[in-house]
Amino acid sequence: MKLVIGNDHVAVDYKWEIKKYLEDKGIEVINVGTDSTDSFNYPVSGYKAAKMVADGEVDGGVLICGTGVGISLAANKVKGIRACVCSEPYSAKLSKQHNNANMIAFGARVVGIEMAKMIVDAWLDAEYEGGRHQKRVDMVMEIDATGELKGI
Ligand code: RB5
User: Fold this and answer.
1) What atom in ligand 1 is closest to the CA of residue 11?
2) Strand duo 28-31 + 60-65: pairing
3) Fold category of 2-146 in CATH
4) Is the pTM of this model over 0.90?
5) Which value, to the nearest 10 degrees, does the dihedral of the CA atoms of residues 150, 91, 115, 15 take?
6) Whose C-alpha lies nearest to ligand 1, atom 3?
7) By the 8 A CB rule, do 30 and 59 touch?
8) pLDDT tens track for 32-48
9) Which residue of 12, 47, 67, 77 sits with most ligand 1 atoms within 8 Å of its CB, as the best mutation to test the pocket?
10) Residue 86 a catalytic site member
11) pLDDT-based confidence at 60, cuts 50/70/90?
């Protein structure tokens, strides 16, 4: 498995810790975030990470900024991306099972590092359930692709 990780200046330490945590599980992790604590614009790494996911270069992505909000907003503007900000493992698990999230985001100023690892694990270990969820994910992706939702 190969993942991409993106972060801003607030989340450099979290990035290294999560990257190592994933690598220790045998997952390859590509770093497209900043390695500096100098002020950095989160859309840059959010976009880069999302593009790699959308282009199929990696299997998914982890996004970290202060809240997880800005970087996931940027990532979700890339067609094909379903990035979910989660502050606990339950939502992270369901983001994959029901929403087929291909990126997970969290805030370095919101969750502790051990909770962050649990969030990443919950998302990684869950499987998309399809079934009744597929129509809804398709609707989300119709909005993503066309900016509209027809037939409602
Ligand atoms: C940086 O100050 C902060 O705005 C950023 O890390 C993130 O929380 C934005 O959503």
Assistant:
1) 6
2) unpaired
3) Ribose 5-phosphate Isomerase B; Chain: A, (3.40.1400)
4) yes
5) -20
6) 66
7) no
8) 999 999 999 999 999 99
9) 67
10) no
11) very high
